[in-house]
Amino acid sequence: MDSDAFKDIVVKHHRQMYRIAYAIVGNESDAEDMVQETVIKMWNRRHLMNGIENYSSYCSTMVRNQSIDFVRSRQAVSVDIEPETVEIVDNRSADYELNRQEDLIRIKDMLCDLPENMRRVMQLRVFSDCSM
């Protein structure tokens, strides 16, 4: 595919790509970045675009995947709880401290038993103080 044909496709589908990216990332500048990254990927793969029948669908899928990857990478926050690293700054009995350490171990085990998506939600909500 030559550069003029590629330019025609990008110009024709640019607004649609932006709307999709904005709906996913929720930010104007990030949506513009997603469209730009998508156009760069499409340019690097332009030699494979000759057999495509529906460019609208191709552009939409490319920008959607790029935007979803961006959101996932931005949300990939992992908080690891190690009972050994938790300091108890309390002058209570040794019995209380031991029970607290055991509780932390049980909580960590329960978190590890959760599916990945639920574990991430719990980590973001409880430990990173993110809103629902």
Task: Describe the protein.
It is a single chain. By secondary structure, this protein is mainly alpha-helical. The longest helix is centred in the N-terminal third of the chain and has 23 residues.
Q: Strands, helices and their partners?
A:
Layout: H1 3-25, H2 28-44, H3 55-75, H4 94-113, H5 116-127
Helix pairs in contact: 1-2, 1-3, 2-3
Spatial gap, N to C terminus = 46 Å
Q: Structural class of the helix and strand makeup?
A: mainly alpha
Q: Total helix count? A: 5
**What order do the helices and strands follow?**
HHHHH
For the secondary structure, the number of strands is: 0
Instruction: Give the amount of beta strand, in percent.
Output: under 5%
Unreliable stretches covering 5 or more consecutive residues: none
Shape: elongated
Give the quaternary arrangement of the chains: single chain
Rg for CA atoms: 24 Å
- Largest sheet: number of strands, sense, barrel closure: none
The average pLDDT is 79
